[in-house]
Amino acid sequence: MAILLILIGVTISLISPVSSKGKARDNKRLSDISTLDRAINEYRLDYGRYPGLENFLYSSNYLPAGSPDLYSALSGWVPVDLSDYFSRYPTDPVNDATYHYEYFHNNVDYEVSTRLEQLLDKASEDGGNDPLKYELGTNLLLITL
Ligand SMILES: [Ca+2]
């Protein structure tokens, strides 16, 4: 019995930090994607169009030619000056091929998305087409799986 309890304790201590770090990363993602969403909307109000190229999928782990770094508010992973709206482009806390932010727009609608690790209820109940990503925008079908 003692051994079993020790094993359970070890297992919990091994698992729960990972889980809580995943949730912490997810909360940052939700906050970041909301910041990005707000900036895109404010830019549209100010300029009458969405920032960046139409029908082009921007990813926070991909640096466009001419941008100095992913985070620069003047020209980051979307090569548009959004410094009026935030001080640096939000990027995923992992920011690899699996976990990154995406942004896409056409001449009518836009979508931003982030893949979540733990808070999958939020990802599956947002009305979008991807149950693993939390999606925001005016058309949540723009970014395909
Ligand atoms: Ca979704």
Question: Tags for this entry?
Answer:
binds calcium ion; 2 helices; alpha+beta; 4-stranded antiparallel sheet; 145 residues
Fold and architecture overview:
The chain is of the alpha+beta class and 145 residues long. It has helices spanning 2-47, 120-124; strands at residues 58-59, 101-105, 110-115, 133-137. The protein has a four-stranded antiparallel β-sheet with strand order 1-2-3-4. Strand 2 and strand 3 form a beta hairpin. The model has no long low-confidence stretch (mean pLDDT 93). Residues 123-124, 126, 128, 130-131, 133-135 line the site of calcium ion.
| Count of individual helical segments | 2
Strand content: 5-15%
Q: Show unreliable segments.
A: none
Query: Using DSSP, what is the number of strands?
Result: 4
What is the count of structural domains? 1
Radius of gyration equals: 18 Å
Can you lay out the helices and strands and say which pair or pack?
Layout: H1 2-47, E1 58-59, E2 101-105, E3 110-115, H2 120-124, E4 133-137
Antiparallel strand pairs: 1-2, 2-3, 3-4
